[in-house]
Design goal:
Order of helices and strands: HH
Helix content: over 70%
Radius of gyration: 17 Å
Largest sheet: none
Number of strands: 0
Shape: elongated
Number of helices: 2
Oligomer: single chain
């Protein structure tokens, strides 16, 4: 997640040449997919622990 945030900041700065901007975008898309997959895996584990029901998160 930290690498993704760093990439976004660099891309938003407007200082990257087009080829680096494209490479950063592609890397960011890959990192975003990885984060989504990890989140889905965690949600699936929570469902197993809660007998198939994903309950809303309650922060304390």
């Amino acid at each position: 997640m930290q690498e993704l945030e760093t990439l976004v900041a660099r891309m938003e700065s407007g200082d990257l040449p087009l080829d680096q901007l494209l490479a950063s975008y592609e890397r960011g898309a890959g990192l975003l997919q990885l984060c989504r997959e990890k989140l889905q895996a965690v949600e699936d584990q929570v469902k197993v622990l809660d007998k198939g029901v994903l309950k809303p998160w309650k922060s304390t």
